[in-house]
Write a structure and sequence with these properties.
Distance between the termini: 67 Å
Number of strands: 2
Radius of gyration: 30 Å
Strand order of the largest sheet: 1-2
Structural class: mainly alpha
Order of helices and strands: HHHHHHHHEE
Largest sheet: 2 strands, antiparallel
Length: about 180
Amino acid sequence: MDVLGRFHVMPRPMLNRFARWVSEELEGGEDRIFEMIAEGDKTMKVIAAGLKSEAFPDGVSRGLLYSWIKMGGDERRVKFDAAREIRAHGLVEEGLDILDNTVAATSQDVTLAVARANYRKWLASKQNRDEYDERQQGPLINVSLNSLHLDALRAGNRPQIADGEFTSLPPQEDPNA
């Protein structure tokens, strides 16, 4: 499911005020927000809450941040998708670090480390499907034998000739008859 489709669009005045603040006052502008997403150290909720200013003393909501991305059209969506793809690489590296650096004192330590690494692998597969999705990506082929079966029934036991060769055998005679 599209992550941006789950959020209701925020009121236009608030979105416009936030967009103006990002472009005029936020150091690095919108590119800084996408860098924060790509770095992957923080969740969208933490990134949104950290966008504090006089206009937004408590930061902004995650919903406002997603609405701002959605409001930016294809250009901002491409930047968001690129940031998430970069973040996916970091998640996979984190999973490897967890597994490599776990000191397994008990089987519970191992189980916890594997669960943490698997969660990061799963999250990476959602944020960068081309690289990390393990589902089979081959073409789907649907073969229907119904029409072939009906053609065979219509032909009955009659021999079929194509290009001078039989394509089906004539009926065998019963040797006991």
